Amino acid sequence: MDSEKRDIRFDLKIIASWIEPGSRVLDLGCGEGTLLHYLREHRQVVGTGIEQHEAEVAACIAKGLTVLQGDLNQEVLDYPDRAFDYVILSQTLQQVYRPRALITSLMRIGSRVIVSFPNFSHWSIRLQVLIKGMAPKNQQLPYDWYNSPNIRVITLKDFRRFVGDLGFKVIDEAPINTQNQDRYGSIVRFLPNLRATYGIFMIGRGDETKKCKEG
Amino acid sequence: MIVEKQFFTFARNKPMVLECGARLGPVTIAYETLGSLDEERKNAILVLHALSGDSHMAGRYSERDPKPGWWDIMIGPGKAIDTDRYFVVCSNIIGGCMGSTGPSSTNPSTRRPYGLDFPVVTIGDMVRAQKALIKHLGIERLFAVIGGSLGGMQVLEWSLRYPGMVRSAIPLATTARHSALAIAFNEVARQAIMADPNWQGGNYYGGARPNLGLAVARMIGHITYLSDEAMRRKFGRRLQDRTDLSFKLDVDFQVESYLRYQGKKFVDRFDANSFLYITKAADYFDVEEQHGGGSIVKAFSKARAKFLVVSFTSDWLYPTYQSRELVQAMKKNGLDVSFCEIEADWGHDAFLLPNERLSSLIKGFLECVGRGL
Q: Which of A1, A66, A81, A84 to mutate to probe the B interface, most B CBs <10 Å?
């Protein structure tokens, strides 16, 4: 519990800041429930998590969080339309086999979907490919090509286009510069596609964007 | 922790009308309690036992009692179901033979044991009788109902029949309805009893009992409670008290010896007719049909409780997919449900064995329910 009383990861803090107090939240791949716990304490949300690994599910339930063990691609299919105000897919999209199908079903069950992922077009990755001529490896992506769970190569630009192609709108975005597991970081305003290590996006249905901006 | 078995009798003047239409009365329920009810009467937990269980969930009957209750690892001061915080109640199911009215009880109209004159009871009837006890104890709303296997069915029944009385529910290693496989095992077990010449159409009280049939029934049960993995680990093909095969029809293998021992042990404490009635109740249980007109999703539209559903990887009697079906129906109704599949080699029986993970799940879940008060 001590770790949760301290600050949470920088990217999670940004996600938390986007969540209206008292809302219904679904956290996919919630791990040991750090974000859900934080949201419950600081945002009074009614939260649910989905996690595949038994030990992490058990840790969540032991903390008093509502969490289901299962495969997120399957589990999201059971919820009624707009069952949640926010659905969070934090640092998991790059490991999803069918991103289109998943994002579409997340938009069905949630009013807003928050997605974060490591930015593959960061300058250090570009340099590695350019100079070494090998598949890039860094702190965000510490794997070799043959053992990496990160099967999707996504950049901030690619994601924006993907959202548009699906007929949804980006409501908010935060390109950030932070190291993996780091509690500190900054928002990147200048040349984000080149300089941000992670992208965090909030997407919604096209029709709501205007209202949101005016509000 | 010293406990005392207590009794509550109701339906003395007005018999209970059972689901099958028959009337039963008076009805006695044997029960035990641990901990104390708080002033607001909000801390009561009802524990529901499985097929061969009884009201003796934890603690001992006397200082010299060699064996504690069947879930002593889970219930007690400081344990997952903490008797310092909760008032914990467990009662013997009707149809049983451990103090509650069942086929071995005296039929008031003949002054002899009911035998097969005892009406077929359902999980719903058992739960209605428990509700009478809970009202008698002055409890309006239960903090939690918890049980595994047949006890888990009662948990589900409570949450659907009396949604306003159940704040939270923990069904463990259970199912919304028996599969053909589960019914098949029960039927073979019942046939073993009824084929025993001592069974006498159920009128064996006062004479020789159908012990052989009941022992075989228990042996079949034990096979379904274990798993391929558990049996391989526990017995393998090891021989019992010998180094070579006997080439006779005696016990050769350890697994044979184990099953015979379990069978023998069981007949000393259990009534064969109760076994027939309880397994029938389990086979009849069907959440979809009884509460949802054929739809499990519709059935759970009645529920209001916060749920924790737990299954075990090696349970082949009520496999995980059956728990997932429950979870799915709860999700579709927007219920607050947590689910965990615990990796365990011990098959269906895993919920009764010491398991750190299960304890921490139950403890954390109950604490969370407490915060919501």
A: A66
